[in-house]
């Protein structure tokens, strides 16, 4: 009982003590500092907890506490600086308002630092820095890919020495590090997925490579726009900018000839080179850059024999540039297309409509559902691998070939139509590109479809007729002094029109795609009328590569032919071969008429042309035999069959070979050829006469 009473007393004491504590809390015990503590707390640290905390300065930030060696914990407080007080959100706004370019600021700082250095020391320092950046990229490109940005910014520097050195230094860097395929951008799903550190490093390097290469090419395109030709009348263009323009053009040529022609942004690199091919410049430096660009494009077309994608890109850009400039380009620019190697094995007439062999049900191999599924998956994997390797299939190559041929023939037709009525224009327009286009048509015209064949023949006939009518001695315009001999360029153009028309027609006839017979008698009679003027041409056997002195009495310079292959003598023999041996246009009246006219021409032509013509007449005699051999026999011509009409132009009608009565002609030119100064010509003439009397 005693213990229970003591417990009850203890409970009452505890209850009273609790009530007192509640009163003290309600009266603000913890707010009073000077009031003594009546609680018996075992830990002395409670005194520190009960003390109010005072902050001396508002601009204070609290750091992490420090624990001393004796176990005490010390509070760390830092004062805020003025930079920390400024709001961070206002920084980009301040940059937008007063943002002097960081590169300009960096250049100014570098100039201030190098102010005490001599020019040689500055140059040495720049070279050392560029070499250091390039060597770092070569040693470990994935680790030091930030050097790309620094080098590229140095190439955009206003200091011409720094800019030139950086531009040239980046060329071998890009050639060594860039792959021979295009790097595609990452998709959103690929960006979100987790990858290993090695893959992340590789992606960062590739992104830096592509980004800086694109900016580098854009800078080259901007610099290459300036040249001597387009800056003569501009006072704003400085000589340093002209030097940068030439350097940028050379850099673009180097990129085109390297493996970077398969890399990203290659169309822009090709455009830099093509943009310089406007007119043939007179300045020596610009002429060197012009010739370099022509050689680069020819090399690109020659080397792209297996794929065709580069040829397609170059032809598209070059043809668009020629049309935009309204054909005011040099003929060497059009001759670039003759280097196309991708069209050498292209035959659209034979490759079309090939019947596919249908597999019968008996020949099919039975596959289970599991095997068919595996085969389908294997095909998908092979297709993905082919796309990754960027390999072209046969169908894709043929598609490129068809598009290249379409663009090329369309351009040729537009040039011919634009230059038909401006043949004697002194401007550098489409008329100066006629010979180059005709040479291209004689090579690629055989691939044209039947729809374009009629257009080409009509345009060729108009070009030839305009030249012949303009130089006709029977021109009705008596006030103007016209007519007479043709110029070298006009003779060449007429011969190319004739050769090209026969080439176009014969290739379609040989493939069996020609549904009708086309009369080319207009071209044959034009060649017959041109023989007399052609024999008086002093440059018949010369090309622009021939070593010869210029004629001091000649008022005009020697015309450079469109292509440095065929002379006018070779073109003449090619046209004669087309008429009599490679087509069905050769008849007996035409053979006799041409034989008589060719003998008259031999009296004036040079030695080599005379020998070649005699050989052709011998070949013609062997084909038509007795029909031509009678021209050497005068006894059979006394029977009164009429007189031979020489074929001189008459007012009433044009020259008609069939009505010239060539059968009544006599080759009296043999008497003069028997006394020719060249012994080989004499022997050839005597041999023909001997063969004619042999039977």
Automatic annotation (TrEMBL):
<dbReference type="GO" id="GO:0030691">
    <property type="term" value="C:Noc2p-Noc3p complex"/>
</dbReference>
<feature type="domain" description="Nucleolar complex-associated protein 3 N-terminal">
    <location>
        <begin position="126"/>
        <end position="216"/>
    </location>
</feature>
<keyword id="KW-0539">Nucleus</keyword>
<keyword id="KW-0690">Ribosome biogenesis</keyword>
<dbReference type="GO" id="GO:0003682">
    <property type="term" value="F:chromatin binding"/>
</dbReference>
<dbReference type="Pfam" id="PF03914">
    <property type="entry name" value="CBF"/>
</dbReference>
<dbReference type="GO" id="GO:0005730">
    <property type="term" value="C:nucleolus"/>
</dbReference>
<feature type="compositionally biased region" description="Acidic residues">
    <location>
        <begin position="87"/>
        <end position="114"/>
    </location>
</feature>
<dbReference type="GO" id="GO:0006267">
    <property type="term" value="P:pre-replicative complex assembly involved in nuclear cell cycle DNA replication"/>
</dbReference>
<protein>
    <recommendedName>
        <fullName>Nucleolar complex-associated protein 3</fullName>
    </recommendedName>
</protein>
<feature type="region of interest" description="Disordered">
    <location>
        <begin position="1"/>
        <end position="119"/>
    </location>
</feature>
<keyword id="KW-0175">Coiled coil</keyword>
<feature type="compositionally biased region" description="Basic and acidic residues">
    <location>
        <begin position="7"/>
        <end position="21"/>
    </location>
</feature>
<dbReference type="InterPro" id="IPR005612">
    <property type="entry name" value="CCAAT-binding_factor"/>
</dbReference>
<dbReference type="InterPro" id="IPR011501">
    <property type="entry name" value="Noc3_N"/>
</dbReference>
<dbReference type="Pfam" id="PF07540">
    <property type="entry name" value="NOC3p"/>
</dbReference>
<comment type="function">
    <text>Required for synthesis of 60S ribosomal subunits and the transport of pre-ribosomes from the nucleoplasm to the cytoplasm.</text>
</comment>
<comment type="similarity">
    <text>Belongs to the CBF/MAK21 family.</text>
</comment>
<feature type="compositionally biased region" description="Basic and acidic residues">
    <location>
        <begin position="65"/>
        <end position="86"/>
    </location>
</feature>
<dbReference type="GO" id="GO:0005656">
    <property type="term" value="C:nuclear pre-replicative complex"/>
</dbReference>
<dbReference type="GO" id="GO:0006364">
    <property type="term" value="P:rRNA processing"/>
</dbReference>
<feature type="domain" description="CCAAT-binding factor">
    <location>
        <begin position="495"/>
        <end position="683"/>
    </location>
</feature>
<dbReference type="InterPro" id="IPR016903">
    <property type="entry name" value="Nucleolar_cplx-assoc_3"/>
</dbReference>
<feature type="coiled-coil region">
    <location>
        <begin position="364"/>
        <end position="398"/>
    </location>
</feature>
<dbReference type="GO" id="GO:0006270">
    <property type="term" value="P:DNA replication initiation"/>
</dbReference>
<dbReference type="GO" id="GO:0042273">
    <property type="term" value="P:ribosomal large subunit biogenesis"/>
</dbReference>
């Amino acid at each position: 009982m005693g213990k229970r009473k003591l417990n009850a007393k203890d409970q009452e004491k505890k209850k009273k003590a609790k009530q007192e504590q509640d009163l003290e809390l309600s009266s603000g015990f913890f707010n009073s500092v000077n009031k003594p503590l009546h609680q018996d707390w075992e830990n002395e640290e409670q005194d520190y907890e009960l003390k109010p905390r005072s902050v001396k300065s508002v601009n204070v930030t609290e750091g992490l506490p420090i624990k001393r060696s004796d176990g005490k914990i010390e509070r760390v407080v830092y004062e805020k600086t003025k930079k920390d007080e400024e709001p961070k959100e206002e920084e980009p706004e301040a940059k937008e308002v007063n943002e002097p370019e960081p590169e300009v600021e960096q250049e100014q700082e570098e100039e201030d630092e190098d102010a005490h250095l001599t020019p040689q020391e500055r140059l040495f320092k720049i070279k050392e820095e560029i070499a250091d950046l390039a060597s770092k990229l070569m040693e470990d490109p994935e680790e030091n890919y930030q050097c790309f940005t620094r080098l590229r910014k140095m190439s955009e520097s206003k200091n011409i020495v720094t800019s030139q050195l950086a531009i040239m230094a980046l060329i071998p860097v890009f050639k060594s590090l860039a792959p021979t395929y295009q790097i595609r951008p990452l998709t959103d799903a690929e960006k979100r997925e987790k990858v290993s550190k090695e893959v992340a490093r590789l992606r960062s390097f590739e992104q830096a490579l592509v980004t800086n290469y694109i900016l580098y090419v854009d800078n080259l395109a901007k610099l290459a726009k300036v040249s001597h030709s387009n800056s003569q009348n501009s006072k704003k263009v400085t000589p340093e900018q002209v030097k940068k323009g030439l350097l940028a053009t050379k850099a673009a040529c180097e990129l085109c000839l390297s493996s970077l022609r398969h890399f990203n942004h290659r169309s822009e690199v090709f455009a830099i080179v093509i943009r310089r091919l406007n007119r043939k410049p007179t300045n020596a430096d610009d002429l060197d850059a012009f010739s370099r660009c022509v050689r680069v494009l020819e090399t690109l077309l020659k080397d792209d024999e297996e794929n065709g994608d580069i040829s397609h890109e170059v032809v598209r850009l070059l043809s668009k540039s020629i049309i935009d400039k309204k054909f005011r380009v040099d003929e060497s620019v059009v001759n670039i297309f003759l280097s196309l190697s991708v069209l050498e094995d292209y035959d659209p007439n034979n490759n079309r409509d090939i019947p596919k062999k249908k597999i019968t049900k008996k020949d099919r191999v039975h596959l289970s559902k599991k095997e068919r599924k595996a085969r389908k998956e294997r095909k998908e994997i092979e297709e993905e691998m082919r796309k990754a390797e960027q390999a072209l299939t046969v169908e894709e190559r043929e598609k490129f070939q068809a598009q290249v041929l379409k663009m090329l023939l369309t351009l040729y037709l537009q040039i011919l139509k634009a230059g038909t009525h401006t043949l004697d224009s002194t401007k550098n327009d489409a008329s100066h590109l006629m010979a180059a286009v005709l040479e291209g048509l004689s090579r690629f015209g055989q691939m044209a479809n039947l729809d374009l064949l009629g257009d080409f023949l009509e345009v060729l006939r108009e070009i030839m007729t305009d030249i012949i009518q303009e130089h006709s001695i029977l021109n009705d315009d008596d006030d103007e002094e016209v007519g007479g001999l043709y110029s070298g360029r006009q003779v060449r153009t007429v011969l190319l029109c004739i050769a090209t028309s026969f080439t176009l027609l014969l290739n379609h006839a040989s493939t069996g795609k020609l549904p009708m017979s086309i009369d080319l008698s207009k071209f044959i009679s034009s060649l017959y009328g041109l023989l007399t003027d052609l024999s008086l041409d002093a440059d018949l056997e010369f090309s622009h590569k021939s070593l010869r002195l210029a004629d001091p009495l000649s008022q005009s310079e020697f015309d450079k032919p469109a292509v440095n292959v065929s002379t006018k003598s070779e073109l003449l023999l090619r046209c004669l071969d087309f008429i009599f041996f490679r087509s069905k246009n050769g008849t007996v009246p035409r053979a006799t008429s041409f034989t008589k006219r060719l003998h008259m021409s031999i009296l004036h032509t040079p030695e080599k042309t005379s020998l070649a013509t005699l050989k052709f007449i011998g070949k013609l005699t062997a084909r038509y035999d007795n029909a031509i051999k009678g021209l050497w026999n005068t006894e059979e011509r006394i029977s009164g069959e009429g007189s031979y009409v020489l074929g001189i132009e008459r007012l009433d009608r044009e020259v008609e070979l069939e009505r010239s009565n060539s059968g009544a002609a006599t080759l009296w030119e043999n008497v003069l050829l028997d006394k020719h100064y060249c012994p080989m010509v004499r022997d050839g003439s005597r041999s023909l006469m001997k063969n004619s009397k042999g039977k």
